[in-house]
Amino acid sequence: MNFKKCFLLIILVIFLSGCWDKKELNEIAVVMGVGIDKVEEGYKITAQVIKPPPKENGSTSGSELPTWSVTATGKSVLGTIRNLNELSPRRLYWAHLQIIIFGDAMAREGITPATTWFERDRDSRAGALITVTPGTAEDLLNSKIELGDVPAKSMAELIDGSEMRGINALDVQLRDLMSILSTPGIELTLDVIRPKEIRGQVETFEVDGVAVFDQGKLQGYIYGPETTGTQIMNSKLNYTIIEGKCPKGGADEVFAFQITDFQSKVKPKLKGDTITVNVDVTLEGNLLDQTCGIDLLQPEQSKLVEKEITHFIKKNIEGEFRIAKEMNSDIYGIGRDLRRYHPDYWAKISDSSAYLDQVKFDIKVESEVRRSGLIIDTTQEKTKEVSD
Amino acid sequence: MEKTYITKIQALMLGISSITVTGHLLFIPVIIDHAGRDSWISLLLAIFPAILIGFTVALLSQRYPGRSMVEYCQLILGKWLGSLVVIIFLVYFLHEISLSIRGFGEFYTSAVTPRTPIAVFFIAILILAAYAVHCGLEVISRTNQAILVILIPIVIFATILTQKDKDYLNFLPILENSIGPALDGTLALTSLYSSIFVLSMIFPYVNNTKRLKRYSIVTMIILVIMFIGPITGVVAIYGEERAKGLYFPTFLTLRDIEIGALQRLDILGILLWSLGSFAKVALFLYAIVLGIAQLFKLKDYKILVIPVGALVSIISLINGEDLNGIFRFLENYYPFYSTFVGLILPLLLLIISQFRKKPGVKKRRAE
User: Fold this and answer.
1) Which of A144, B91, B171, B281 could form a disulfide with B129 if both were Cys (CB 3.0 to 4.6 A apart)?
2) Mean pLDDT throughout A220-234?
3) Chain B positions with Cβ closer than 8 Å to A
4) Which candidate, B277, B194, B253, places its Cα nearest to that of B29?
5) For residue A211, is it within any domain?
6) A195, A222, A249 - which closes a domain
7) Tens digits of per-residue pLDDT, A193-213?
8) Would you call B239 and A184 a contact, using CB atoms and an 8 Å cutoff?
């Protein structure tokens, strides 16, 4: 019996003595963001790691970044990371990676060869955001910003919180990238992020525009209001602000409308060789701002407001599609939808993106102005009434 | 040999946990590789063979009450031919257990702890399982009961949490390449369910075999239901093209759950597969050692536990060069081989036993 107990004890000591693959916190460098650029000899990877906090009595110099960006070059991503590890005294740890940024040159060359390692590595999460910057990713990661200590984290927050702040961002994660790139009939679109100068020096980042890809290669950028097209088609336009011309107002009098409920259904219809894409949009929202002094909540006025919103949606769907068509890119995934509903037809046309020329849109919008914040008539109207 | 008795439900619970775990861990990619976005059709079609398997196993045990597969094979086919068939079954069990241990170890080394040698996991799980087998059937089935209470909520929980990322339009178009791929998927699923034949070693110890057929058919239907979530989920999240060619798609979907602060739930998957693999390894190890003991008329199976356990760990190491090799085997050969051993052979046994009358059986026993 005693022998048995001793034996059990030995076994327990062997198996309960801790972890085999342990990683002590003071032996790793947590990578928050990574930038991938194209250089002559291959890839140039910038990894942004968090610096361990200085000793407590040390003076905390506020301007110094608590991050360190380390850069190395190599022929493949993993090879470059090996070279990075030559420079970093601590082992790079990828499990907290928030954002992967591709420089413009890299993206034009094609991003798929660079994502393989991130897909395969067991530490990296498929939740990392993927973005493109028009300059180089190295410069972007090294820019000093005012709000937030860690640039990579600030960028991730800028995109993650886009819905809450009512701005447009596509929020493409590694997982989405994997499935979009492997699905025929849909092309990738990514957020564009760049350093923003305020008062002559870089103070923050800006998320604006859409990078359009074809077969994983960057074709060009789309800026301006048209960028909402992709989100409309993907039913992701919630909480965005729409501006429209005030009915019966002057040329620069506008209203601003916040969407609180948005849904769109896309279904392609075939007639001979023309592809009609039916888009049914239903949206609800609040009229929160206006520069014109008319009561826009009057039934006849609100009809006009809804018409203006309809116009906005139609214009942007068709506008973004037209720009992307010039780059031969099917950003709305019309080919994918065609394959779902008309597989026979898709089998005939899937070799080229020529089918994009036959696409016509049939857009139906049902919009509803639900609320207008806390007040009904604006003060602007009241002042007018008095002065009359 | 053993005097312990377990209930019907305990026996069937053993079957559920052992099949679910290998299925979710190793077999989902195989089914998706075969059937792609039509794998849900494969699953629907697999209900019929699944019910057939459950029915066959239960009916054979009912026809020879109190006798295990080893004993009734010899009764049905005679001593020599019967022994040959028994050996086929035992080798099948041995292969099955080594595959699932290998899958379990490979999962750990490629997804969780890459620097740990794979043998560590083999040895750890085999020591646990061997101890459980040494303690007897009642211990195995009661442990499994406790495990299953955790397992099933995890599966349901995972299905609900991944709901947000699912796009069921990914299932269109249905049957793009006609029904062929879906039937391949059905065959793969059938082969997976065929390993429930291991219960033929357990059923003799069930205290009450009344309505065993009905129970076992319900079990098979539960098994089919347990696969709806993972099979449809993976395709709905990744789309067909990406879902093909992932090693552990169910683990990936679990790992990428992000709902507010609720993220990094990989540990749920690891828990699920570690506990379930334990149940499966214990059940199959028990079946093998008991089978060998009965075949060679040993008094006690317990002395066999450690040698067979060691053998299993060696076979697990040599039965495939790498994870890719295991998957190729599971994809190309396993469906035919396992369906033949787990479904066709028992069906043949059932048909032959139909022609042998019971009195004849008694005479043979008297000899």
Assistant:
1) B281
2) 84
3) 110-116, 120, 124, 127, 165, 169, 172-173, 176, 237-242, 252, 255-256, 258, 263-264
4) B253
5) yes
6) A222
7) 988 888 888 888 888 888 999
8) no
